[in-house]
Amino acid sequence: MVGTPTFPLILRAQDDVLFRSAEHAVTARMFLRAARHLAADLPDGASVVNLCRDRCNFALVLAASVLRGQVSLLVSDRSSSRLSALADEFAGTISVSDDTSVSSPLRHHLISPAWDVPAGDVPFPSVPAEQIAAIVFTSGSTGEPVAHRKSWGALAVRSLAAGTRFDLSLADPASIVGTVPAQHMYGFETTVLLPLHATASSWSGTVFYPVDMRRALAAVPAPRLLVTTPLQIRAMLRIGLSLPPLAAIISATAPLDVMMAAAAERRWDTQVLEIFGATEVGSIASRRTVAGDAWSTYPGVSLTHTEEETLVAAPFAAPTALNDVIEQLDNEQFRLLGRRTDLIKLGGRRASLSGLNRILTGIDGVIDGVFIAPDGLDDRPTARMLAFVVAPGCSPDAILAILRERIDPAFLPRRVVAVGALPRDEVGKLPRQALAALRARLQDA
């Protein structure tokens, strides 16, 4: 249709490297040729569940699906029951992977790209900005996963904005190493979409353990960006991991403690930056953690307030309500006060669950920990909190004694329970159902 806005599938030069691995440096020209071949091979289907673990392959399936007008369903839960549920909800769903060991109840397609170097330039196609390219799902940390549709224009423009915010320059292309799955909105934006529209390349391989991070960072040219989470930063600091020189560490998925950020900056002689966002809206703001509590919105992002909520608006995206309470400082800066579901009240006093968790995990010897609020707080004034900790060598009684000195007595847990590990997902979040199961096991014991 004449006048319909479009946005390029790839906004890079032909010979720019988009993805790197131990075997390949995939340029924009190579990537688009492979995407066109894959688009011709993919089975028909309105929706595609992208199960690829290699980030380049994941991006390739995304690009091929966009070229075919198919919608990518991004889910971290790869269980047969979850995939079957998606097929029931989204008719005509297929799955695609790059791993022969993957089992899927859906009509399945296995890919194994051949990275040929085509002769001459490959024309870069444009995509209607309003075309729905992906449906992403919330993590379930506050309930059942909820689907959110993302247009290609919204995704692409936000990638450009992130490139501007993180000062990715044409003269000095950045190398991104990400520890966050591509299926998660944070990992999707920073390690899959960003290389398509900003001056950066992304490491293709799976990176999770600290030794993986060090090897991947050593394999890519400077300047290096490590995209990770507070949980993994804490783990790297705890073992005293040495890393190649870093231009920056980028963190998201949970609030980052200022003291931890400062320790990371000293340990690796870098700066630690945070992204603020949510699955519902994507990334919308950033800050340098040690510089203060003010967040700066991305270019093109605006916030408007009503008596009940804050709405986020960005190009090619409908205004979306935030689940967070914020204090607007000026047109571009705000202070985050906490999630609406994060605030609890006991004995007439208020506290933030995330704030309590930061105090808990800040205790020496506590590797991980979480406070759990009891059900029916409004109807049970005598209810008490519960805390689970991963703290080998530190007794629950000792942890409780320290908490007595650091938190309001109203929020002191009735029990501190030691466990071997908390049921975190791939990005370090604790789904509500997993926490409920953990509490149920305690009650049954």
Structure, explained:
By secondary structure, the chain is of the alpha/beta class. It folds into two domains: 6-338, ANL, N-terminal domain (Rossmann fold), CATH 3.40.50; 343-444, ANL, C-terminal domain (GMP Synthetase, Chain A, domain 3). It contains eleven helices and 27 strands. It has helices at residues 28-41, 55-68, 80-89, 152-165, 185-197, 210-219, 230-239, 258-268, 353-361, 396-406, 432-444, and strands at residues 6-8, 17-20, 25-27, 47-50, 71-74, 93-97, 107-110, 126-128, 132-137, 147-151, 174-178, 200-203, 224-228, 248-251, 272-278, 282-288, 294-297, 302-305, 310-314, 317-321, 324-328, 333-339, 343-346, 349-352, 368-372, 385-390, 413-418. An eleven-stranded mixed β-sheet has the order 3-2-12-11-13-14-15-16-17-22-21, with helices on both faces. The chain has a six-stranded mixed β-sheet with strand order 7-6-4-5-9-10, sandwiched between helices. Strand 23 (343-346) and strand 24 form a beta hairpin. The longest helix is centred in the N-terminal third of the chain and has 14 residues, at 28-41. It is globular. The relative contact order is 0.09. The model has no long low-confidence stretch (mean pLDDT 89).
